[in-house]
Specification:
Elements lengths: L1 E4 L8 E8 L9 E7 L10 H9 L3 E5 L19 H18 L11 E11 L1 H11 L8 E7 L19 E6 L7 H10 L5 E6 L6 H4 L3 H19 L2 H10 L5 E6 L11
Parallel strand pairs: 3-4, 3-5, 5-6, 6-7, 7-8
Antiparallel strand pairs: 1-2, 2-4, 8-9
Length: 269
């Protein structure tokens, strides 16, 4: 599906290809929406395992291909990450409209979304954009009810202030051996959130790509943890929160909780 993001300010109108995963068949009802932003020079299919894991438990998952920063961009224009929060919000709104009235597209989304229950997620630069879309006063959209930040940080380039009152739930996932996103940046993002429920999943020895793009044990752990978080944040599933806490008890994966979320653990990092 190709969705048009209207022009605004110095941003031109953009056509953003969007790949959707969702369950089909008899008895499949409306579900929360999760919109996903890939990292710089990454493509949607590199995250297939992670995104399918969310769809398999019932979420409708929409992953954006940012024309200027995808793996097909030559050269990439990394500065356009500043446009991405608005692109994420615009695509989410378009998909909500498609669920309500069948447009745009062929009507496959009609009635498939729970109105107003949307999470934003991203990896690397896409995680920076997801964080800004949920928590930065200059670019946040109230449509987003939760955020998953995979190896991301606060970017001062967005302007505004971070984490206004009543911010939505946040999950930060970070590898301790990440050579691209300094682990200290992810910790600073987590620590800066003093306004809402939050969780930090710390992956000891993990790098920048493998936990989110691969099919190994790290990716499976991240898929399970993010799924549990989304089920709690979007569906109120207390059992999913307990499962998330259990995942963070190993030597290679430690969990911190804050903002009144569960039983707070010792800080990690």
């Amino acid at each position: 599906m190709a969705l048009t993001v209207p022009a605004a300010g110095d941003r031109p109108a953009l056509v953003v290809p969007t790949t959707i995963w969702m369950r089909r068949g008899p008895g499949v009802g409306p579900a929360p929406l999760v919109v996903f932003a890939p990292g710089y020079l990454q493509c949607v299919d590199q995250y297939t395992g992670l995104l399918r894991s969310w769809a398999e438990v019932g979420f409708v998952v929409a992953a954006l291909t940012f024309p200027a920063t995808s793996c097909q961009a030559s050269p990439g224009e990394e500065w356009t990450v500043l446009w991405q929060p608005a692109e994420l919000a615009s695509v989410a709104a378009s998909l909500e409209a498609a669920s309500e009235n069948g447009q745009p597209g062929d009507g496959a989304l009609r009635g498939r979304l729970v109105p107003g229950v949307v999470a934003v997620a991203g990896h690397s630069d896409g995680a920076d954009a997801a964080a800004a879309a949920a928590f930065n006063s200059a670019s946040r959209d109230p449509l987003f009810r939760a955020a998953v930040v995979l190896a991301g940080a606060e970017l001062a380039s967005y302007g505004g202030s971070w984490f206004p009152p009543t911010s939505p739930p946040l999950l930060v996932v970070q590898g301790s051996a990440d050579p691209v996103n300094p682990p200290s940046d992810a910790l600073a993002l987590y620590d800066a959130d003093q306004s809402g429920p939050k969780a930090l999943l710390w992956l000891e020895g993990a790098g920048h790509f493998q936990p989110y793009e691969g099919q190994g044990p790290e990716e499976q752990l991240v898929a399970a943890a993010t799924t549990d978080f989304l089920r709690w944040a979007l569906e109120g599933d207390a059992g999913a929160l307990a499962a998330l806490e259990a995942l963070g008890q190993g030597a290679d994966a430690r969990l911190s909780l804050g903002g009144g979320l569960g039983t707070a653990a010792e800080p990690v990092g």
